[in-house]
Structure formats: structure tokens, C-alpha cells
Description:
Elements: E1 2-6, H1 11-21, E2 32-37, E3 55-59, H2 65-71, E4 77-80, H3 87-92, H4 95-115, E5 119-125, H5 148-167, E6 171-176, E7 178-180, H6 189-198, E8 203-206, E9 212-217, H7 218-231, E10 237-240, E11 244-247, H8 248-258, E12 266-269, H9 284-290, H10 298-311, H11 313-321
Parallel strand pairs: 1-2, 1-4, 2-3, 4-5, 5-6, 6-10, 7-9, 8-12
Antiparallel strand pairs: 9-11
Amino acid sequence: MRILVTGAAGFIGSHFTRGLLADEYSGWEGARVTALDKLTYAGNRQNLPVSHPRMEFVRGDVCDRELLRELLPGHDAVVHFAAESHVDRSLEGAGEFFRTNVLGTQTLLDAVLDTGVERFVHVSTDEVYGSIEEGSWTEEWPLAPNSPYAASKAGSDLVARAYWRTHGIDLSITRCSNNYGPYQHPEKVIPLFVTHLLEGRQVPLYGDGRNVREWLHVADHCRGIHLVLNGGQPGEVYNIGGGNEYTNLDLTRKLLELTGSTEEMIRRVSDRKAHDLRYSIDESKISEQLGYAPRIGFEQGLADTVAWYRDNPGWWKAVKDGTHRAG
Ligand code: NAD
């Protein structure tokens, strides 16, 4: 078996790749892995083993059709994580988001079609649904993205759907809630706050902190992706959630407690433009059809995550000062 993982040096893609190499995913034991990543500011080669007999690391762009046509023959599946992923950056400039997320997905799917790869999983986000005040989104919910990031991901979902419907590519789409865990870039809220607090710096909390996010441990997310890879139906969308909803203020208080800090370490900053109030997904489809259930409780998962950042200052300091890119 041979599988290609795009965005393999990022937070979630590297977790999935390390899981494949550790034979954690049934049906893929012993599989060879092509780890494709452009190594943007968000990609970190150190998130993957330096070398592994079953892994080939390829530095490349999902928009490079020639490279993809060379690489893809012989692969049984593609799991597509590569994306520009940070909402705040998409508010500053959205071009790269649409290039990588929409054109990159379309280029990759063209190459899949040309080379006959049999299975494709497109990793997306619950942010394509917009914001929900009450209740939870099912997969049938209309797409109403509010940020350029979310719009580019919604565009990529529609490209994927069209390639299934038009060309019959066997692909499924996953939409997950906010991930947390080790190896997440310190621009994202949990590692940003934890590493700031470990450095004795204040943390910037948007607005009144009442925005609600649903948290999912990266290991549970990757278990869900594996279930969809093996058992998801063509053309279907699967929400993957963690079931842990917290306001940003409550989350911040938990992080203060776990790092032994006080409320004085919170610095209020003006709210993000068009800041979605609440995300909440209904994951009954993947639970009922594919037997998905998150295994990592939020309290334990968060404590372990804070401990990981405390124990690995070399990793996040290099990312924060940019020296992780030197090699
Ligand atoms: P990340 O930013 O940590 O990693 C993205 C990776 O993609 C990086 O390694 C980067 O170098 C690579 N990349 C970017 N542009 C590329 C290109 N043109 N060609 C090849 N590689 C490229 O992101 P993540 O948090 O690991 O997210 C992975 C996927 O999951 C994304 O599609 C994201 O939209 C989705 N997602 C993430 C979350 C979350 O909470 N992190 C939630 C929902 C969905």
C-alpha cells in the first residue's frame, strides 16, 4: 500500500503521517508514505522523522501539476491536508489562501484523475458553515463562510464535490472543529497562549472572550480521518467534532490555571473582524455510520498538551523565532 499525504509537515498532517509510520491505522500497516509539503512558514520538517524506511519526504507545492503527475502514480490514496490555515492571516491578505486552498485542491484532483489514484480524502473545516448561535451543524447545513480562510475552504469543498460528481473520483470530505495538541504552530490560540504564559508574557484575548469554540484533540481528529479514508462513502461529507465547547475566556482561564498564572496575564485586544460567535457540529453521522467516538477528554488532553509545550521549548522557540526553517 502507498499513500500520499499533503501538508505532511504541518500540525495535523504530521500527526497523521507519524500515525501511519507507527502503524496506528488499520488497513495501512506497513504502507509507504509520500509526505508532500511546500514548507511554508507553517510547515516544519522537524514535525516528521529525519528519515524513515517507509517515508519519502518531498518538498513541493500542491499547485505544481507536473510534480503531482510525476509523484502520484502507484499511490492507493491521497489525504489532503495542505492549506493556508490561519484565519487572521487571511484577513491581512487572502491571495495565497485561494491559490493553495482552491487552485491547489483542483490541481491535485486533476492529477488524481489523470493518474488513477483510487481514494481521496479532503480535509476541511466546520468554519465553512459560518457561525451558529444555537444547536449544531449537520452536514446538510448551507455553507456560509465568513472569513476569507473559510471561504477558500468552502471553495475547495465545492471543487472536491464537483470532481466526485463529474468525474466519479472516490472522495470524501471531512469537516472538523478546532484542533489542539502537540506540534501546533504557536500562531494558533492554544499554543500561542501556552507559550506566552510559559515565557511570562501576557496573552491577547479578542473582545469580550465570549466566542465559543468546540475543541477536538488532533489524535481523535486523525482517527476520524482514518475511519473516513477506509469506510467513507464517495461524495459524502463527515463532520468530526470533539464535543467540548468553551468560550475563549473559559479556555484562557484553564490555560492560566495549567501554567500557574493569574488573570493579570490577560490583555484584552480589539475583536477580530467578523469574528464568528460560535461553532458547534453534529457528529452523529460519522458516529453512527463509521463508529467514530473521540477518546481524549478535554481536561486530560489540554493538560497533556500544556505539558508537551512545557517539555519541548526548543521546538516552539525555533518556530517563534523562525530558526526552524534554517535547515
Ligand atoms: P498547518 O498550517 O499547521 O499546516 C499546513 C501545512 O500545509 C504546512 O505544513 C504547509 O507548509 C503546507 N502547505 C501550505 N501550502 C502548501 C502548498 N501550496 N503545497 C504544499 N503544502 C502546503 O495546518 P493544520 O492545522 O495542520 O491544518 C491541516 C488541514 O486541516 C487544513 O486543510 C485546515 O484547513 C484543516 N483544519 C484545521 C483545523 C485546526 O484546528 N488546525 C481545523 C479544521 C480544519
